[in-house]
Amino acid sequence: QVQLVESGGGLVQPGGSLRLSCAASGRIGRPNSMGWYRQAPGKERELVATITDRSGTNYAEFVKGRFTISRDNAQNTVYLQMNSLNAEDTAVYYCYLINLYTLREYWGQGTQVTVSS
User: Fold this and answer.
1) Which of 22, 46, 43, 41 is nearest to 106 (CA)?
2) What is the CA radius of gyration of the chain?
3) Which long-range contacts (CB under 8 A, 24 or more apart) does 30-35 make?
4) pLDDT digits (tens, 9 = 90+) for 53-101
5) What pLDDT digit, counting tens, does each position of 4-13 carry?
6) What is the pLDDT of residue 70?
7) Which of 21, 22, 37, 48 could form a disulfide with 95 if both were Cys (CB 3.0 to 4.6 A apart)?
8) E-strand stretches of 1-117
9) Quick one: pLDDT at residue 38?
10) 51 phi and psi angles, rounded to 5 deg
């Protein structure tokens, strides 16, 4: 079993920055991809960014140039640096991991990000 524990959410003013972290533990396996999805009230969950264990990245168009995803393979931790935040970024952000061999998926419990003045 794999556990994902997120941290770093909170309240930030428009134009501000936050850094999310997600630590994975358990039988993770490789190859894998980790990343972040988000879900705003009344909307479907959507991809934010992913990164493979070989550092291949994928970003949603709406975060390109503002968010940066990175990971520490030794610590099984993924980070999301979020800059130039705006109200539309308000959502619950979920950490995600997929084992690319078995295609088994795992989700964190989510961390709230609120952008408001």
Assistant:
1) 22
2) 14
3) 30/99, 30/100, 30/101, 31/99, 31/100, 31/101, 32/97, 32/98, 32/99, 32/100, 33/97, 33/98, 33/100, 34/71, 34/78, 34/95, 34/96, 34/97, 35/69, 35/78, 35/95, 35/96, 35/97
4) 999 999 999 998 999 999 999 999 999 999 999 999 999 999 999 999 9
5) 999 999 999 9
6) 98
7) 22
8) 2-7, 10-12, 18-26, 32-39, 46-52, 57-59, 67-72, 77-82, 91-99, 105-107, 111-115
9) 98
10) -145, 130
What is the reported pLDDT for 64? 87
In angstroms, rounded to a whole number, what is the distance separating the alpha carbons of residues 74 and 81? 19
Tell which residue, 83, 86, 82, has the closest CA to residue 111: 82
- Segment 100-117 mean pLDDT: 96
CB neighbours of residue 68 within 10 Å: 17
Contact 77, 5 (CB under 8 A): no
Q: How far is CA 65 from the centre of its chain?
A: 16
Tokens 């493979």 identify what position?
A: 52
